[in-house]
């Protein structure tokens, strides 16, 4: 069992969207177990401002932003800082989040027993990125395989991500944890069925290639007379124009956690047609709010939704449209899947045990 006052440094160069939520969730649960937590990160366009960021983390969390001009210089500064803190004994464990941070942490820390104090969660394997050419994806697999032979532990957040990693990467050390929403976020009652108002279909995501906004836009074009469509999140104007264009989709921009909860209370169907994931926090939030979900069949999505019970896992674009229409046209089906989603979230999509899980993994790797 780890020391009750162990010191943990979470590290990421991708401080935005679901990464913020999952790191904050783990940090909060670890702090509740008595750990001292700090977070080292690079800012992205979607990174919350300093005040908003502080509100998401437990009191006493040390937040350190690295900005040395260029991105490359900031990454180097981040790597050297983590290496120095671990070598001096300022922290006991380093947990890197995302592929680049994972590579930096594993390369920066000396091998041997000290290297066993490093842990890495990809939150979506980089070699699954369909926006990259085949040669680049193969290169990511090779890099992951090489680094996986080192002393660090790869910590995965969904069963399909874990199985994929074991098959493709074969890490020397690996573990599976259950991330999720706070149990208090799981609604006790199904959302009220809309009467006299249009039904609403929504997603939560950055407007980027990974989230397949053109798929969401096409469903909106096909079903725009049956419901209103909202994209909760934001992205560059050129990406919005290229992938959503004139589709009947309202883009809200980024919302605070409180605003997001209010927004989800008015959603009837959650449409999440992404190309790759780890364990999507947005989808777990939707299930916790009792929102039937229509999702693409990819890593993470198939773990967060029970096909035919709390939503539908779809094989192609045509099925995304068909299943969304099916839910919009059948209030009884929506209600049944809403009830099932909340039960599923209570059982399998909360973060209640992630603090103890991660601390036990850290201690076991360094025993």
TrEMBL record:
Matches recorded under SUPFAM superfamilies: UDP-Glycosyltransferase/glycogen phosphorylase
Domain (Glycosyltransferase subfamily 4-like N-terminal) ranges: 17-183
UniProt xrefs under Pfam families: Glyco_trans_1_4, Glyco_transf_4
Entry keyword annotation includes Glycosyltransferase: yes
Gene3D superfamilies: Glycogen Phosphorylase B
Keyword hit for Glycosyltransferase: yes
Keywords: Glycosyltransferase, Transferase
Protein name: D-inositol 3-phosphate glycosyltransferase
